[in-house]
Amino acid sequence: MSEYLSILIFILIGTGIVLFTFLLSRLIRPHNPYHAKNLNYECAEEPVGNSWFQFNNRFYIFALIFVIFDVEVIFLFPWAVAFGQLGLFALVEMVIFILILFFGIFYAWKKGALKWV
Amino acid sequence: MDFPFPEYNLQYMLPEIFLFVWALVVISFDLLSKRNNGSTTGYLTLFGIAIAGLLLGLVGNGKGFGKMFINDNVAVFFKVIFLGAAFMAVGSSFGVMQKKIVNHRGEFYALLLMSTTGMMFLSSSQELLSIYLGLELTTIPLFAMAAFYKDDKLSVESGIKYFIIGAFSSALMVYGMSFLYGLTGSTDLAQMKVAFFKTHLQFGDMGIVMILALIMLAAGIGFKLALPPFHQWAPDVYEGAPTPVAAFLSVGSKGAGLIAFAKIFVDGLYAYHSPDMAPNDWGMLIGILAIAAMVLGNVLAIRQTNIKRMLAYSSIAQAGYIMIGMVALSASGIASVGFYLFIYLFANMGAFAAVAVFEDMTGSCQIKSYAGLARTSPFFSAVMAVFLLSLAGIPPLAGFLAKYYVFASVVDVAQRSADSSWMYWMVGIGLLTTVFALFYYANVIKVMFFSPETSPYKVEAPLPAKAVLAIGVIGVLLFGLYPEPILQFATGISSSLHFMP
């Protein structure tokens, strides 16, 4: 039971710190909202129009293609760190893995997903 | 530091590897061939499935990846069923490909092959995590395939519905698995079984966590098998999805759920279903689900006017009959489950193939559009009638034997165990519902044969669909009269699921 008690204390202290800092900053910060401050943050650009409109669905396709590279790097990184011990077998496995992912790029390319018309 | 590699023995995984590579080949072929290839993509897929079957026969039994990938009798039996289901689904999809899915042939077949790969992995896995992975690889391509008519609202609805239900049930299942892991400290089914026997001998009772885990797992797998009360998605999904996909769902996905059930419950949790050890076991829970499936499926099917919805409810009821065999939990019970699924493959895939052929020609799935079909295309109507009668369980056909073996195995177990009156109730209700089942199957036959008007349609099936119908009819007739080879094949399953640690 005592192990669980320490977890409970951890949760309580963790929540408490967050609440405390919010409360503290609310007490000591100046309160001065104006129009420019209340706008959505758009990389310091002035936002135009409403954000509730239909996005071009190419954005989603691009996001998907990004995932291909992203996943690749996530798996390449630990592999590269441990490469010395893993040897040839892991190299072949990684090549197969990358080839399968590259097939995704090939597919997207052939389907015309990389063209922004 | 030396990193210990397990024994890979990749050769036992050859059929799966081949199927996956073949999926990429099919999709590349479709990309590069400028889409004027007619049905070549489909034939290429059929060829790949046949080669995978051949490889499966060649590799034999063995273990790979430590003990995580096992090719034993159960695995081979279910892999044959999955490959057969994929073959028949592809065979009945040629009409749909020509009319509706022209621009995405390669994707369709590649997704189907990947789903089959997932099912095959699932039937070889001997460990909770790889079971979960196999089940996900099975269902995720099926979400996309259910929504394959992108412009059809029903199809998209069925895809979304199946996706939400599928994700939810997977979450439930993996939660249940985490309990099992927490209780035993292992995800390996063999070690889990030993650990459960020890705790069971020590305490004699399950305890609340075990009950929670059982409920989670039963619900998760119940969703995949469409057992009531987790069945509501099935009719909508079957109705909206392309017919070959519905066929593949009804046999392939059901088979995947069954093998997962057999591995986790029958094998891993065996300690909690030995009649002389536990008063509160999972047998009765599954028995109640099976009774609910038989009653609800058969009664609701009577009111359906759409033949795909009718077949969906019928498949819910069939899942109930199959689960009876699982509850029996004897060697003959497991064998009867295998036999039932094998016959179900022929009868149900055949029935769906016939529906697909008719739908491609007329665009209708209503039962009333079948009126008077026997006058214009008597052969097609006779074939359809054979499939429906086999599903209903009429004697000379294989469906009768399948039902007979299932019921016989339960009665056999009930006679031997002490507290078994509920098993007799289950059998009684099951027998009663087969009468209801006969009513709606015979209704379609009545509409086709004894309707006064003459049908305006004359059925023309493409060659692969004809082949699928022929395979189905031959399977149903042949194994109805001569069931020994399949029985022997199915009895091999029980030798692989070891009942004692």
Brief characterization of the structure:
Chain A is an all-alpha fold and 117 residues long. Chain A is built from five helices and no strands.
Largest sheet: number of strands, sense, barrel closure of chain A: none
The secondary structure category of chain A is mainly alpha
Find the CATH superfamily of the domain at 57-111 in chain A: NADH:ubiquinone/plastoquinone oxidoreductase, chain 3
Distance between the termini of chain A: 63 Å
- Which strand order do you get reading across the main beta sheet of chain B? 1-2
The Cα radius of gyration of chain B reads 22 Å
Helix count from the secondary structure assignment of chain B: 20
**Percent strand of chain B:** under 5%
What Rg of chain A, in angstroms, do the CA atoms define? Answer: 25 Å
Q: What's the domain count of chain B?
A: 1
Question: Any overview of this molecule?
Answer:
The complex is a heterodimer of chains A (117) and B (501). Chain A has 117 residues and is mainly alpha-helical. Chain A has a domain at 57-111: NADH:ubiquinone/plastoquinone oxidoreductase, chain 3 (Methane Monooxygenase Hydroxylase, Chain G, domain 1, Up-down Bundle). Chain A is 70% helix and 0% strand. Chain A contains five helices and no strands. Chain A has helices at 2-28, 35-38, 58-81, 83-86, 88-110. The model of chain A has no long low-confidence stretch (mean pLDDT 85). Chain B has helices at residues 14-32, 40-59, 73-91, 94-99, 105-124, 128-146, 153-184, 189-203, 208-225, 233-240, 243-268, 282-302, 307-328, 331-362, 373-376, 378-392, 398-416, 421-449, 463-481, 484-496, and strands at residues 62-64, 69-71. In chain B, helix 3 runs antiparallel to helix 5 (105-124), helix 3 (73-91) packs across helix 19 and helix 12 (282-302) runs parallel beside helix 18 (421-449). Chain B has one domain. Chain B is built from 20 helices and two strands. Chain B has 501 residues and is mainly α. Helix content of chain B is 75%, strand content 1%. The interface between A and B is small, with 10 and 9 residues.
